[in-house]
Amino acid sequence: MIELFKAGGIVMYPLAALSIFAFAGIMERLIFWFGILRLEKQTGENILAIARQDLKLAAQLAENSLKVPVGRFLYAPLALEDPDPELFRLALESSADEELAGMLKGEQLLEAAITLAPLLGLLGTVTGLIISFGSLKIGDVAANAKSGSLTQGIGEALITTATGLIIAIFTSAFHRLFLAFQDQQAKLFMKFGNQLELIYRQHWQQNKSHS
C-alpha cells in the first residue's frame, strides 16, 4: 500500500488529506443522522398526542425536546401567545426551513471532496503524462522504457486517477444517503406540521365559537 502511494507521486498527498477530511465528514454526518432518526418520529407523535388534549402542555413537552429537530420545529408555533392560524402556519414554515437548512451544513465538506477528488486525480494524470513524455527521446524509446521513466509516469497517472475517482464515488454514495435522510425529514416535518396546524385550527374555531 505504501509503495502504491509513493508510485502515485506528489498529488497523492493532497488526495490523502482529502480522503481523511471526507471520512471525518461522513462519520460526523452518520452520528448526526442516526442520533436524530431514532428519536424524531416518537418525539413528534408524543407532542401531537398531547396537543390534541392541551396545547400548552404540548408546548412544554416540545420545549423539553429542543435537542431534537422536530421538537424545535413544533415548539416554534406552540410558543406563540394565541396566534391566529395564519401566523401559526407561518411559524411552522419558517421553523421547517431553518431546521432543514441547518441539516445541510455538514454536507458542504462532502460536496467539496466530491468535486476536488476527481480534479486532483486529473492533475495527477497530467503530471504523470508530463513525466512520461518528458523522458522520451527520439530513437531512444526502448531505452527509456527500460529505465522505468516511461512506466513510472504512466503508473503515476493511472494511480492518481483511480484514487481520485474512488474517493469521489465513496463520498458521493454517502452524500446521496444523507440527502435521502434530509428528504425524509422534510416529509416528516410536513406530516407533523399539517397535523399540528389542523389541531390548532380546530382549537381556534372552538375558542371563537365559545367567545
The helix count comes to: 8
Number of strands: 0
The arrangement of helices and strands along the chain is HHHHHHHH
Q: Name the helicity range.
A: over 70%
Radius of gyration: 28 Å
Instruction: State the end-to-end CA separation.
Output: 78 Å
Strand content: under 5%
The pLDDT mean sits at: 85
Shape: rod-shaped
Catalogue the unreliable spans.
Answer: none
Structural class: mainly alpha
Main sheet makeup: none
Question: How would you describe this structure in keywords?
Answer:
8 helices; 211 residues; mainly alpha
Structure characterization notes:
The structure is a single chain. The protein is mainly alpha-helical. The chain is 86% helix and 0% strand. It has eight helices and no strands. It has helices spanning 2-7, 12-51, 55-63, 69-78, 85-103, 107-134, 141-147, 149-210. The chain is rod-shaped and about 90 Å long.
What is the topological layout?
Elements: H1 2-7, H2 12-51, H3 55-63, H4 69-78, H5 85-103, H6 107-134, H7 141-147, H8 149-210
Helix pairs in contact: 2-3, 2-4, 2-6, 2-8, 3-4, 4-5, 5-8, 6-8
Summarize the structure.
This protein has 211 residues and is mostly helical.
